[in-house]
Specification:
The complex is a heterodimer.
Chain A (H helix, E strand, L loop, with lengths): L2 E3 L3 E5 L4 E8 L6 E6 L6 E6 L3 E5 L2 E6 L4 E6 L8 E8 L6 E3 L3 E6 L1
Parallel strand pairs in A: 2-11
Antiparallel strand pairs in A: 1-3, 3-8, 4-5, 4-9, 6-7, 7-8, 9-10, 9-11
Chain B lengths: L3 E4 L2 E4 L4 E8 L5 E7 L6 E7 L2 E5 L6 E7 L2 E7 L7 E8 L9 E2 L3 E5 L1
Parallel strand pairs in B: 2-11
Antiparallel strand pairs in B: 1-3, 3-8, 4-5, 4-9, 5-6, 7-8, 9-10, 9-11
Classes of the chains: A mainly beta, B mainly beta.
Chain lengths: ~110, ~110
Amino acid sequence: GQNIDQPTEMTATEGAIVQINCTYQTSGFNGLFWYQQHAGEAPTFLSYNVLDGLEEKGRFSSFLSRSKGYSYLLLKELQMKDSASYLCAVRSGGYNKLIFGAGTRLAVHP
Amino acid sequence: DTEVTQTPKHLVMGMTNKKSLKCEQHMGHRAMYWYKQKAKKPPELMFVYSYEKLSINESVPSRFSPECPNSSLLNLHLHALQPEDSALYLCASSQGTGVGNTIYFGEGSWLTVV
């Protein structure tokens, strides 16, 4: 079966750091993506991990452990505009098929 | 430039209507996708085209008919839809379908079936 779990909602304070976790159990694994989606808008690409370890991109970092079926997205120096849903997606099988988790709604408050 | 453009942004159609959603990218990508997203749910894959050939159909009802006229264009023809088909339809593209190819999404078409 295919199962991707993320917390439903998180809240954080402006300027703080937040970590959004994602665990997965899929029949195949060829990489994990994180997307940001503001309400009513399209998902925008944040990061990609295919090997174990940390990938850093400015205020955003993503970590992957394939043996544990685990990833996290780390957001630093939070800004109000970071309030959005964060989607974890696993590439499983051929033809770049992505399976999305239900998403984590992050609310950043002053 | 990672732009995927979709038209129309909003569409309201009756259950007996025939309409189409259109998608265009000029990034030279050879893979294009249709996803469906219901409110507060994640996107769900519908179709994948690779080099203008249909590669994946996720058991989508025949009232949805995809078409890829060329490598830059992707259409979704709609006919005899049901109210439960109301959703955000997202088009996406990627350079290819191999490992490491990032999928870039368009802004979506909001469809309401009445």
